[in-house]
Amino acid sequence: MTDMKRRTVLKIALGGAGLAALPAATAAAAEAKRDPRIVGVGDTSITVEFDDQLHSRVALNGSQLTQFDAGEALLLGETAIDTFAYREHRTRKTWHSRHGAGVQVTIEGDSKEGVRKTVELTCYQRLSGMAVMQVTYTNLSGTSFDITGWRNGAHELLQSPGGFYTFSGSTHEDRRDWVQPVTDDFSQQNSLGMDASDYGGGTPMATIWRRTGGLSVGHVEPEARILRMPVRKSEHGASVAIEGDTPRTLKPGQRLTTDTTFVTVHPSDHFVPLQRYRDYMGDLGLRAPKVAKSAYAPVWCAWGYERNFTVEQVLGTLPKVRDVGFKWAGLDDGWQTNEGDWDINLAKFPGGDADMRAFTRDIRDAGLLPRLWWAPLAADPESNLFKEHPEMLLLDRDGNKQQVTWWDAWTLCPAYQPVVDYFAGQARKFIGDWGYEGLKIDGQHLNGVTPCYNPAHGHARPEESTEGLAEFWKAIHDAAHAENRNAVVELCPCGTAFAFHNLPYVDQYPGSDPTSSYQVRTKGKSMKALMGQGSSYAGDHVELSDGGNDFASSYGVGAVLSTKFTYPSDPPGTKPGREKVLTPEKEALWRKWVDLYEKNMLPTGEYRGELYDVGFDLPETHVIAKNSTLHYAFYADQWDGDVELRGLGKGEYTVTDPFNGTSLGTVDSRHNTVRLTFEKFQLVVAERH
Question: Which of 45, 94, 512, 649 yields a CA-CA distance of 20 to 30 A from 569?
Answer without folding.
Answer: 512
